[in-house]
TrEMBL record:
The keyword Repressor appears for this protein: no
Protein keywords: Signal, TPR repeat
UniProt-recorded name of the protein: Tetratricopeptide repeat protein
Signal sequence range: 1-20
Protein origin, superkingdom: Bacteria
SMART domains found in the cross-reference section: TPR
Intervals holding TPR repeats: 250-283
InterPro entries referenced in this protein's UniProt entry, alphabetically: TPR-like_helical_dom_sf, TPR_rpt
A family per Pfam: TPR_16
Length: 397
């Protein structure tokens, strides 16, 4: 009889603990929903319920947690709309706590019971909350970005795209739909994620817009940048090559040229630079880069000269282009002069090259006075042309 009484007492105690915890969940909501809310106490009670075995697997716990955070957000929003000054970070931090609570609620609400059946109670309510709050989540990203809190901005924008992709929102086009504006937002945010060294978040966001018509090339570009930030050269190269084969986007070709140059694969770099020139034939920088490839990686000064000349034809008043072309002419002349058996014809050709380089270097010096490398090269041309007065005037001895 005593044993039976003990069992009954223990059962009553267990029931009492469970009931107390469920009461705490309801009390937490009331604290957040009263005329003078106590959000700190409400958060303390609901956090305890999320950790207690009696309530931690109950979807109601997390639905109430979401409600508490929404109440806190809307409390500050209401004050702000009435012209009162509020803690903006605290306001939007509350908004960003809503989604994690709803995700857990949805998971538990859609878990099969002992009979293998799902009896979802909160799914429709979750849809309603997300629908009315997704704009505020986006606004939080904008506000954090404007206040230069880029990490919080990124967290808000990641939530914005997660909400759009949640199965619970799939049948609501007002929430899940994506257009060209969504694509542009995703690209900006993915760049932000990469700049913050969080390429995994960049890839998550880009995945969200992958099926939007017309976004393929932009997604490839963003993914390439993310994998570059991640240090995955193999995947970066694969995406650049895929982009170059599918898209008329200068980014892919320029990036391939840069990558192959770094890898000392000059022929591959030249191949993609040729393609880039076809896309943008009036871009002098492309010809300058091509000249550099021929000059410094293929060690072919004659090959470099024609490319530098083309860059200069397009942009004749650029000091760098003038200097690069003149230096190639100078180096070709120096190579002729330093050969094992210099013939008179070779010496004459060298002098012609020095003479060609002279006005180009003088122009570069005019365009950028006091540039040490330009003046050093110009002084050497004066010396080789036996223009000793000008050579000495520049500090020659």
């Amino acid at each position: 009889m005593k044993k039976l009484a003990l069992i009954v007492a223990l059962a009553a105690m267990t029931f009492g603990v469970a009931t107390a915890q469920r009461s705490n969940v309801k009390a937490a909501f009331r604290l957040s929903d009263q005329s003078k809310p106590d959000f700190e106490q409400a958060q303390m009670l609901i956090s305890a319920a999320e950790e207690n075995p009696e309530t931690m697997n109950d979807p109601e716990t997390y639905y109430v947690a979401a409600q508490i955070n929404e109440n806190e957000f809307r409390h500050y929003l209401d004050l702000q709309q009435k012209g009162q000054e509020v803690d903006i970070k605290k306001m939007y931090d509350a908004a960003l706590r809503i989604l994690p609570a709803l995700e857990k609620c949805y998971e538990l609400d859609n878990t099969p019971n002992a009979n293998g059946k799902v009896k979802a109670k909160y799914t429709k309510k979750i849809q309603e909350i997300l629908k009315r709050d997704i704009t505020y989540v986006y606004n939080g990203g904008v506000v954090f970005s404007q206040s230069n809190n880029q990490q919080s901005a990124l967290d808000a924008f990641v939530q914005y795209f997660k909400i759009k992709d949640l199965p619970v929102c799939a049948n609501d086009p007002e929430v899940s739909s994506k257009d060209s504006t969504t694509v542009q937002i995703a690209l900006i945010v993915s760049d932000l994620a990469s700049s913050l060294k969080q390429p995994d978040k960049a890839l998550l966001i880009l995945q969200s817009i992958k099926t939007v018509p017309g976004a393929e090339c932009q997604v490839l570009r963003g993914e390439a940048s993310a994998y570059k930030a991640q240090g995955d050269t193999v995947k970066y190269l694969d995406l650049l090559k895929e982009g170059a084969s599918k898209c008329s986007d200068f980014f892919f070709f320029a990036s391939l040229v840069d990558l192959y140059s770094t890898m000392n694969k000059t022929d591959e770099a030249i191949k993609y630079l040729d393609d880039a020139i076809k896309l943008d034939p009036n871009n002098p920088q492309l010809y300058r880069v091509m000249g550099d490839l021929w000059a410094y990686q293929k060690n072919d000064t004659q090959g470099a000269i024609k490319w530098y000349k083309k860059a200069l034809e397009i942009k004749p008043d650029d000091a760098d282009f003038n200097y690069a072309y003149a230096m190639a002419l100078f180096n070709e002349a120096a190579d002729l002069r330093s050969a094992a058996n210099v013939t008179p014809a070779m010496d004459q050709k060298a002098m012609e090259l020095f003479k060609m380089a002279l006005p180009i270097l003088e122009k570069a010096d005019q365009l950028r006075p006091n540039d040490s490398k330009i003046r050093y090269m110009l002084k050497n041309v004066y010396y080789n042309l036996r223009m000793m007065d000008k050579y000495k005037a520049m500090g020659g001895e």
